[in-house]
Amino acid sequence: MTTRRPSASGHQNYIQHSAHIPPGREGLFDLVRSVPKTLHHENQLIVAERDYVIAHGRFTGMGRPTAWIAADVIRLEDGVLKEHWDVLQDEATKAESVSGLPMFGDTFPR
Question: Which of 50, 89, 92, 109 is the most exposed place for a label (fewest CB within 10 A)?
């Protein structure tokens, strides 16, 4: 198996679509460096088609009153991260859920 090393110029083409993350690779790296050590991510589902991957998960331990349920969408090109979008929503409690179903997993948050 051959490991590809992306060129430096390939890194400059990264596009960040998320409203809470500054543009470019440095914006993403700065976000990752700034998260608290208490941050926890649970993945529930990953769907991939061609160059696109969607990861559905839950973020807790961020100092927020509720967890974030996230759908992260990424586009890869030749194995290199090229674009990122995310959809974030506060996790609903059982009382808030009109459907009566949890947004993540089989149980509601406590």
Answer: 50
**Integer Cα distance of 3 and 54 in angstroms:** 23
CATH code for the domain in which residue 72 is found: 3.10.450.50
- Tell me the residue type at 68: W
Q: Is residue 95 part of a domain?
A: no
**Domain tally, the chain:** 1
d(CA 109, CA 97): 11
**Tens-of-pLDDT digits for all 110 residues of the chain?**
444 444 444 456 899 999 999 998 899 899 999 999 999 999 999 999 999 999 999 999 999 999 999 999 999 999 999 999 999 999 999 999 999 999 999 999 87
In a domain, 101, yes or no: no
